Fold this protein.
Amino acid sequence: MQSDKKKVYIKTFGCQMNEHDSERIAGLMAEAGYDLSERPDDAQVIILNSCSIREKAYDKLRSEIGRFGSLKKKNPGLVIGVGGCVAQQEGKRLLGGGRLIDFVFGPRAIHKIPEIMERVSVDGRGVVEIGTTDDKMVDANMKRDNGITAWVSIMEGCDNYCSYCVVPYTRGREVSRPSNNIISEIEGLASDGFKEVTLLGQNVSSYGKGLSESVDFPTLLSSIEPIKGIERIRFITSHPRDLSPELIDAMAKLSKVCEHIHLPLQSGSDKILETMNRGYTYEEYRKKVDLIRDRIPSISVSTDIIVGFPGEDRDDFHKTRDAVMGIGFDSIFLFRYSRRPNTAALSLDGHLPEDLKIERLEEILLMQKEITSRKNRSYIGRSAQVLFDGQNSKEEGGIAGRTRTNRVVYAKGDSSLIGHLKEVKIVSSSFASLRGKLLENSINA
Ligand code: 5AD
Ligand code: SF4
């Protein structure tokens, strides 16, 4: 039977933080009486959860607004809202004169969605709620869909002001969430059958700052570890400056904390790191990676790299290239520098032409492809624990999951294995994934 409830279609751009915000938006829209729709054409409300970290993401939003705008011509009753970082940045400018967008809300105003929907239904359009950094993190019922792995937000915002980054302006100052709220959310997830949590924050290693309780990130991890039912704990993102020996100790000791760390390096040149305002030198970064590899030999280390930052000369670029080669990351998210509003880097000298940035990006990409493929090949013949979390859409009877080191693994297997931890033997690999064979008698949690 078809539901005659109102429907909302949510389109998400950008990072995990945004994906997770969309789960909160979906939960709040459900409270406001809306079911989630898979297709924009079936929806009465469309929400675009925007990202402004790089210009490309912003351009994508513009083209989507145009696309959904033409739906609105066919269906004038359609309501379109824009949330996320662009909404925070642009505020009511987004409403423009075109009557395409009806409401705008920033990441700190998500909890006001039910109220916004009320106002839209009364005022028609033009509702703008961008929230302020004083808005505390609010717990909301998420609408999570896979039932196996969940994101859990532990802090919002960022106080680091890296000179290229728009996040402190869009998501505001850093605010940590009280640990008892986090623990009770994870206990709830465990009783709903979730097996893995990923703790989210722009800089998880500084968790606890500003809270009235005395808690830091290693302590938080230790209090999540005993929660029965949760088998794996992950977290993103750690700032290299704040990665402490205590955190490395906690990772080594706590059996549920997975052997993976995302540690954005950004550049291998100390001159560039300084103008980026990153707060560490390449040598300091390198020593932390050595320390963590020493304590946890199977750890996989991923990173973010920006090429073409203002003032990056050939020598700086070579330092980044040598760092990527020397450290041998398991994977890299590679970006070319993009000018963002309000950021300090805008006014630096020495902005580089796009074609040079692309050339540098491609050079590192090619190198990294080789490194990742080599690292993946080293898994062949070994066994690995995999948490299966879905079907492999490209293979009949195929299932997909991840190792503790965050590698994607495909295997042939019954769909009843989805949601379970299994031991597999890795039989082949590519740049992007591993192929495994299920082992008999493997653990089944
Ligand atoms: N240009 C290019 N990359 C950026 N990042 C953040 N801001 C910019 C920018 N202006 C990258 C950084 C960060 C990741 C999430 O996005 O590498 O770690
Ligand atoms: Fe942006 Fe730097 Fe904060 Fe990361 S640590 S969100 S790059 S300002």
About this structure: The first strand starts at residue 6 and ends at 12. The mean pLDDT is 92. The chain has four domains: 6-129, 146-258, 271-377, 383-443. The first helix runs from residue 16 to 31.
